[in-house]
Structure formats: structure tokens, C-alpha cells
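Inverse folding, one chain.
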């Protein structure tokens, strides 16, 4: 698989793991630069867990991203129309978006050495 300029899922945006990676995939897809291997899982898997945790609609968020909003603007929008997780939600791992990168399941998937579908 070709090298894709995606952030690591462990890189935080506004205290949340994975959120930036999801935005990177949306932006690349909108520009036609996301490899087809990733297309089937857009809005699914960890993307879905993240938007469910934030209680926002994935397609609505995609439209915000396509309008050119920054990471911070998109996250602020999520906090406004969905919910803003508490520090406890994030620090105690009660969410998939805030702590997905720290889970054993995620680490096994991430480091499996197989083409990533996420």
C-alpha cells in the first residue's frame, strides 16, 4: 500500500485520540487522494465509534470538513451540536474516540503489518 499522509491515531486533537486521523481521511477523500483501500470503511469502524461518542452525524461532519473548517472548528462544532466529553470520559477510557489508540484491540490491529482498512 502506498504511503498515505494520515496522522497517527494516537495524535490528539482537543484531547481526543483518532479524531485528527478521521479528519485527514475525510479531507484526502474529498480531494480524491485517499487510496481506494480506505473507502469502504469511511464512516465505519473507529470513525463510527468516534462520531457516536461525540453524538454527531458523520455525513454532517463530512460537509463541515469539505467547507474548509480547521480541526479546531470541526471539534468545536461537534461539541456544540453533539456533546463535549468530560475529562473523566477521556482519561478513564469510556469512549472509543478518546482512547481508541490505547486499547489492546487497536494496537493489535494497528501493528499487524497488514494493509490497513481504517
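Residues assigned per position:
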Amino acid at each position: 500500500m502506498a504511503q498515505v499522509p494520515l496522522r497517527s491515531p494516537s495524535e490528539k486533537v482537543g484531547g481526543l485520540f483518532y479524531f485528527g486521523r478521521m479528519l485527514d481521511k475525510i479531507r484526502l477523500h474529498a480531494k480524491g487522494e485517499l487510496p481506494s483501500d480506505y473507502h469502504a470503511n469511511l464512516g465505519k469502524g473507529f470513525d463510527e465509534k468516534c462520531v457516536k461518542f461525540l453524538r454527531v452525524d458523520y455525513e454532517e461532519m463530512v460537509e463541515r470538513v469539505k467547507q474548509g473548517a480547521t480541526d479546531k472548528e470541526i471539534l468545536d462544532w461537534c461539541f456544540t451540536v453533539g456533546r463535549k466529553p468530560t475529562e473523566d470520559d477521556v482519561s478513564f477510557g469510556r469512549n472509543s474516540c478518546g482512547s481508541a489508540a490505547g486499547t489492546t484491540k487497536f494496537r493489535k490491529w494497528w501493528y499487524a503489518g497488514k494493509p490497513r482498512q481504517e
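The chain has one domain: 19-110. Residues 113-118 have pLDDT under 50 and may be disordered.
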